[in-house]
Amino acid sequence: MIEILNHFLAIFGRLGPAFVLGAAIGFERQLRQRNAGLRTMVLVAVGAAAFVHLGVRIAGSDGAVRIIAYVVSGIGFLGAGVIMKEGAQVRGLNTAATLWSSAAVGAFCGCGLIGEAAAVALVVVVGNTVLRPLVNYINRLPLNAGSTEAVYKVHVVCDAGHVTEARDLLAEALEEGGYPIQSIDVLTETDERVELAATLIPTTAQAADLDAICERLSGSPELDAATWTMSTTL
After folding, report:
1. Considering 87, 112, 140, which residue would you say is the last residue of a domain?
2. Which range marks the domain in which residue 84 is found?
């Protein structure tokens, strides 16, 4: 009976800190209404701690190392489930990384390294809170075509009967400008007007070069308008 009680106290000494530290991470996620919130982070941390502690009980430090390796890969699959692609945007990467970090906190607790687990949890919470204003500030900065890695597209609008000529003019102008094309696609099409967009292969470009190319294209009688756009890469 005493031995069972000792085992209970030992595992509670590992799972208890995992619960508290996982809750600290999950509380911030829950406040921001993320898909993986308080309960999820707690369960990930506690589950990781339980498995690692089981490995320690069965096979000592070697067993813990093997279990930790499986925890790392297993949480990777769990994190993939919260990553969603919506058009050109990918959501859930930060939540997936937080899940992974919560598993690390639990693994530390399962090994009895409570101080290290607390340090990891603190860094995760600070990273998700303190860095947020800096990220928002950077995201509000205007994109710089000369230094930002992005997707560049040159758009032209033409009569429906001049699509072939417009495609050739677009390809020729970009080739002469030194910007190879990945593809030319039809964005919009009506009975009277067609908009084409050439996606460039380079991930950086000079705004002055693209402006000059568009100005040249705008002067073509077969084209009604020409412009270029850029969007950040995934």
Report:
1. 140
2. 2-140
User: Which tokens go with 234?
Assistant: 């995934």
Strands 193-200, 181-189: pairing is antiparallel
What average pLDDT does range 184-212 have in this prediction?
86
Q: What is the pTM of this model?
A: 0.63
Task: Give, rounded to a whole angstrom, the gap between the first and last alpha carbons of the chain.
Answer: 57
Per the CB < 8 A criterion, the answer to whether 158 and 193 are in contact is: yes
Cβ contact 195:187 at 8 Å? yes
Q: Does the structure show a pLDDT above 70 at 193?
A: yes
Together in a domain, 127 and 161: no
Instruction: Looking at the structure, tell me whether residues 154 and 135 fall in a common domain.
Output: no
Residues 115 and 162 grouped into a single domain: no
Tokens of 155: 């758009």
| Closest CA relative to residue 167, chosen from 179, 180, 183, 152 | 183
Q: Report pLDDT digits (tens) over 112-138.
A: 899 999 999 999 999 988 888 887 787
* 150-159 vs 193-200, strand pairing mode: antiparallel
Q: What is the pLDDT of residues 135-176, one digit of tens each?
A: 778 767 766 655 566 788 999 999 988 899 999 999 999 998
Name the residue with higher pLDDT: 36 or 47. Answer: 47
Same domain, 179 and 135: no
* Residue 156, domain CATH: 3.30.70.260
